[in-house]
Amino acid sequence: QSVLTQPPSASGTPGQRVTISCSGSSSNIGSNYVYWYQQLPGTAPKLLIYRNNQRPSGVPDRFSGSKSGTSASLAISGLRSEDEADYYCAAWDDSLSGMLVFGGGTKLTVL
Amino acid sequence: QITLKESGPTLVKPTQTLTLTCTFSGFSLSTSGVGVGWIRQPPGKALEWLALIYWNDDKRYSPSLKSRLTITKDTSKNQVVLTMTNMDPVDTATYYCAHSRGYYGMDVWGQGTTVTVSS
């Protein structure tokens, strides 16, 4: 059972906007930055969003992150077939010896 | 350009100790704020953070696995080593190492190495 809670699946059609939620607590999302990772099939996770809403260079601006209280969300606009992947949220947790906690992952299907 | 690569055995027997090495380039683990961590992913399951070592030798472990894990660094060789004792079939997973830096979090990951625990 993951510390952060994500829906197991999400879907959308090309061009649509989809959002993926991530729920935590005051010791993780509530007091620390949120990160989002994209994992394409058979590959290592790739950092998509850091510091709640910042994109590393090379990540399209179709991807955006937000945080409010103890929840966060990832939005993908202009959905493309290559966005089909697993998405994970993460945050440092102050109550667990400063470890990084992950969500259970959301499998995004592009219909 | 930061790169990391994991290496170690692909198969270990139950009760054995696993030793994984992360060899990196493009940064120094003696630079303030920098760390290298380990994360694993059982087949078809979610990511699980294991441990992290910082430039100043500060070490953090997953509380649930702390008794079995040891993380060390060799700055001169640009390597970080993770040992996990008393391996069990449930430890079968792909193990990743990743660069960590301040609010960027774990921003660059290695390709991962698959470890199977079986007799």
Features:
A: 111 residues, mainly beta, 6-stranded mixed sheet, 9 strands, 45% strand, globular, B: 119 residues, 7-stranded mixed sheet, 4-stranded antiparallel sheet
Helix/strand layout:
The complex is a heterodimer of chains A (about 110) and B (about 120).
Chain A: E1 9-12, E2 18-23, E3 34-39, E4 46-49, E5 63-68, E6 71-76, E7 85-93, E8 99-102, E9 106-110
Parallel strand pairs in A: 1-9
Antiparallel strand pairs in A: 2-6, 3-4, 3-7, 5-6, 7-8, 7-9
Chain B: E1 3-7, E2 11-12, E3 18-25, E4 34-41, E5 48-54, E6 59-61, E7 69-74, E8 79-84, E9 93-101, E10 106-109, E11 113-117
Parallel strand pairs in B: 2-11
Antiparallel strand pairs in B: 1-3, 3-8, 4-5, 4-9, 5-6, 7-8, 9-10, 9-11
Task: Write a compact overview of the structure shown.
The complex is a heterodimer of chains A (111) and B (119). In chain A, 0% of the residues lie in helices and 45% in strands.
- Following the backbone from N to C, one meets helices and strands of chain A in this order, namely EEEEEEEEE
**In which range does the helix fraction of chain A lie?**
under 10%
How much is the radius of gyration of chain B in Å? 14 Å
- Classify the helix fraction of chain B into a percent range: under 10%
Q: Could you say which structural class the secondary elements and strand pairing of chain B correspond to?
A: mainly beta
Task: Please characterize this protein's 3D structure.
The complex is a heterodimer of chains A (111) and B (119). Helices cover 0% and strands 45% of the residues of chain A. Chain A is mainly β. In chain A, the strands form 2 sheets. In chain A, strands 1, 3, 4, 7, 8 and 9 form a 6-stranded mixed β-sheet that branches. Chain A is globular. The termini of chain A are far apart. The mean pLDDT of chain A is 96. Helix content of chain B is 0%, strand content 53%. In chain B, strands 2, 4, 5, 6, 9, 10 and 11 form a 7-stranded mixed β-sheet that branches. In chain B, strands 1-3-8-7 form a 4-stranded antiparallel β-sheet, with no helix packed on it. The N and C termini of chain B lie far apart (40 Å). At the A-B interface, strand 8 of A face strand 5 and strand 10 of B.
